[in-house]
Amino acid sequence: MARITAGVGVSHVPAIGVAMDSGITDQPYWKPVFDGFKKSREWIKDKKPDVVFLVYNDHCTAFSAAMIPTFALGCAAEFHPADEGWGPRPVPVVKGHQKLASHIAQSVILDEFDLTIMNEMEVDHGLTVPMSIMFDQPEEWPCLVIPLCVNVVQYPAPTGNRCYNLGKAIRRAVESYEEDLNVIIFGTGGMSHQLQYKRAGLINPEWDKEFLDLMTKDPVKASKIPHVEYLREAGSEGIELVMWHVMRGALDEDAVEIHRHYHVPASNTAVGHIILENKT
User: Fold this and answer.
1) What is the CA radius of gyration of the chain?
2) Are the beta carbons of 171 and 250 closer than 8 angstroms?
3) Is CB count within 10 Å lower at the N or C end of the chain?
4) Class of residue 139 by CB neighbours under 10 A (exposed 0-12, middle 13-18, buried 19+)
């Protein structure tokens, strides 16, 4: 059967993609950021995932204020990088696993989680930056990808608990798929940052590091963090961290931490990263 073997939590700061695309990752400002990803790239190269299930949020690219689904599952054969105002990123087209995605859609919806099924969708930096962080700059991505887009742009976003339980439903779906596949799940976004108004530039390293600790030690407690705490402690865009709970819910509760990286700043954002493996 297919199985989820590990999870990756990672920020999707757009400037990280710009640094890679511009060839400036060795500059003094960026080198500490990318040094923390060296082990991650070695790890995922060794793990050889067949499929990455990638949880991210759209930044008003595929969706607009006219329509913002809470959970949108990509079931297309491929997903092209979106033009976010300065042309698409020079990264490979994302190839989907249509059969597994359709199976997950059926299983999760019958498990009473409502999904919007996307048979056509462009993907922005929310998805392409985590892929670049983990796989560098290949001519083709080395695995298939199933995107799950979560609304954290327009209130109300789903709760961490809802996302955590969705992760459990996704795991049940994957494990009921008969093909032998190694699936790694990504939860992306965050960490603490705010892009507007009086608290623009807010970064809270103490809270971020506590959140990373909870990802390893007490994911259930982490899933209970209320919206108001994300807003107060991690800034308005810190709400993106609810997407990490989808990843964490899909893993064993006692999953083992393999690697952690935290750095401030990258653009005006705290960069957070964690890798967790199931024991079995």
Assistant:
1) 17
2) yes
3) C
4) exposed
Tokens 């990258």 identify what position? 266
What fold is seen in the domain 3-277?
Protocatechuate 4,5-dioxygenase; Chain B (3.40.830)
The residues spanned by each domain of the chain are 3-277
The beta-carbon contacts of 232-235 under 8 Å, at least 24 apart in sequence, are: 233/192, 233/204, 233/207, 234/190, 234/191, 234/192, 234/193, 234/204, 234/207, 234/208, 235/192, 235/193, 235/194, 235/199, 235/202, 235/203, 235/204
Q: What is the pLDDT of residues 91-145, one digit of tens each?
A: 999 999 999 999 999 999 999 999 999 999 999 999 999 999 999 999 999 999 9
Q: How many CB atoms lie within 10 A of CB 7?
A: 28
User: How far is residue 185's CA from residue 6's CA, in Å, rounded to a whole number?
Assistant: 7
Q: Which of 92, 107, 228, 214 is nearest to 164 (CA)?
A: 214
Secondary element (H or E) of residue 264: strand 256-266
Q: Which of 84, 39, 90, 13 is nearest to 265 (CA)?
A: 13
What DSSP letter does each residue of 82-113 carry, written as one string?
PB-SS-B-S-PPEEP-HHHHHHHHHHHHHTT-
* Dihedral-angle region of residue 57 (phi above 0 means left; psi in -120 to 50 means alpha; beta otherwise): beta
68 within 8 A of 154, measured Cβ to Cβ: yes
Catalytic residues: 125, 193
The encoded tokens of residue 51 equal 């499929």
> How far apart are alpha carbons 246 and 169 in whole angstroms?
9
Model confidence pTM above 0.70: yes
- Please state, in angstroms and rounded to a whole number, the distance separating the CA atoms of residues 13 and 59: 12
